[in-house]
Amino acid sequence: MTKRLTWAGFGILATLVGMAAGHLVAAFTDPAASPVLTVGSTVIDLTPTPLKEWAIRTFGANDKAVLVGSVMLGALVLAALAGLLARRRFVLGAGVLVVLVASAAVMALLRPGATALDVLPAIAAGVVGVAALALLTRSASREAESVPADGVGDGPSRRGVLIAAGTLTAAAAVFAGAGQWVTGRRTTPAGVTLPEAADPAPALPTDLRGKVPGISRLQTATRDFYRVDTRLTLPVISLDDWTLTIDGDVDHEVTLTYDDLLAMPMIERDITLTCVSNDIGGPYVGGARWLGVPLSDLLDQAKVGRTADQIYSQDVDGMTISTPLELAMAQKDAMVAIGMNGEPLPQEHG
Predict the structure, then answer these.
(1) Angle subtended by helix axes 2-28 and 156-186, to nearest 10
(2) What is the C-alpha separation between 310 and 315, in angstroms, rounded?
(3) Strand pairing report for 335-340 and 243-246
(4) Residues lower than pLDDT 70 in the chain
(5) Gap between the Cα atoms of 127 and 91, Å rounded
(6) Contact between 196 and 266 (Cβ < 8 Å)
(7) SS (HEC) of the chain
(8) How far apart are CA 77 and CA 52, in angstroms?
C-alpha cells in the first residue's frame, strides 16, 4: 500500500511541476492559456446556464475558485493514475500525462482569438511533467536496486528519491510564483496619464455615513469595487495595440486607438453600477467617479444608419453584449471609460 501511495504521489508531483511550468510560460504569452485555466474556461462554456446561475448563487465570488479547484482535483486524480501506471511501465504513465496536456492544448486552440502560441504552455507542461516523472521513476528504480536480499538498504538511493522530490517541489513553487508575478506585472496599466475632463463632475455631497446605520459610501474605493468576471484570468492587452472599431450599419467605419480616445474631450461622472445578477441588498453594486469619452460622440463619428436598433459589443475573448441603441443615445452620461476614481481604469474593471 505504501509503495502505491508513493507512486501515486510521483504522478501528482510530476503533474504539479508540469502545470507550474505551463503557468509560467502562459504568463509570457497569454495567462488564459495556462492549462488549468484553459480547461476551466472550456468547462464554463459547456456548462448549462441554469447550472452556472446556481453556482453563482451558491458560491458567490468563490464560484471560480471552486471551479478551478474541481479541475485541479480531476487532473490530480488522473495524475495519481499516471504514477501508478509508471510503476509498472513508464511509458504508460507518461502516456496519461501526454493525454492530459494534449486535451488542454486542443481546448486552448478552440478558445476565441486563439493563436499557435497558445499551445506552448501545454507543450511546456507536458515536457516538464514527463521529465519530472522520469526523474522520480529513475530515482525509485535506483533505490530498489540498492536494497539487498535481506531488505536492509544502504540509504543513498532513498536519499536520492527524497532529493529529487524536494527539488521538483521547489521548482513547482518557483515556476508558479514567477508565473503569478509576471502575470501581475503584465495586467497592471503603466505609463498612463489621464487628461483633464472637459466636463468635470461636481463635488460629491456630504454623505450620511455615521448618521444612518449600515449606509454605504457614495463612492466605492476601486479596491473594494465589486467584480463579476467573465473569465478565469485577466486579459493581457497592450495599450499600443488596442483598438475600438465601430462598424455595421454605419456610414463611416471608425477605428480608434487608445491615444485617439485620450485626445478627445472627456466627461467625468459619478455613476453607480450594479450587476444584472445582483439580488436586492446584494454585494454586487458600487459607485465610482468615471472619466471617459461620451458614447454618443463616438457613434456620431460613425454616423449610425436608420435600420440599426442595437449596439452589439464584443470583447477580446469573444463575449458579446447587446444594448438598445435608443437607450444608449438617450443616456448622455453613457461613456467609454478610461478612468476610475482618478486613476487609469484597471484591468480588473475594464
Answers:
(1) 30
(2) 16
(3) unpaired
(4) 1-2, 60-61, 143-157, 189-190, 208-210
(5) 14
(6) yes
(7) CHHHHHHHHHHHHHHHHHHHHHHHHHHHCCHHHCHHHHHHHHHHHHCCHHHHHHHHHHHHHHHHHHHHHHHHHHHHHHHHHHHHHHHHCHHHHHHHHHHHHHHHHHHHHCCCCCCHHHHHHHHHHHHHHHHHHHHHHHHHHHHHHHCCCCCCCCCHHHHHHHHHHHHHHHHHHHHHHHHHHHHHHHCCCCCCCCCCCCECCCCCCCCCCCCCCCCCCCCCCHHHCCCCCCCCCCCCCCCCCCEEEECCCECCCEEEEHHHHHCCCCEEEEEEEECCCCCCCCCCEEEEEEEEEEHHHHHHHHCECCCCCEEEEECCCCCEEEEEHHHHHHCCCCEEEEEECCEECCHHHC
(8) 24
Query: Is the alpha carbon torsion for 322, 326, 328, 329 positive or negative?
Result: positive
| Max Cα distance, the chain (Å) | 91
* Cβ atoms 34, 26 nearer than 8 A: yes
C-alpha pair distances (Å), 23 with each of 30, 43, 116, 178: 10, 18, 16, 9
Residues 6+ apart with CB under 8 A from 141: none
Cell of 280: 436586492
What pLDDT score was predicted for residue 157? 61
- Among candidate residues 148, 106, 140, 142, the one with its CA nearest the CA of residue 126: 106
pLDDT, tens digit, 9 for 90 and up, residues 202-251: 988 877 666 777 777 888 999 999 887 777 777 777 788 889 999 999 99
CA 42, 188, 225 angle in degrees (round to 5)? 75
User: Quick check: pTM over 0.85?
Assistant: no
Residue 36 in contact with residue 75, Cβ under 8 Å? yes
pLDDT digits (tens, 9 = 90+) for 311-329: 999 887 777 889 999 988 8
Grid cell 449606509 in the structure block, residue: 215
Beta carbons of 136 and 161 less than 8 angstroms apart: yes
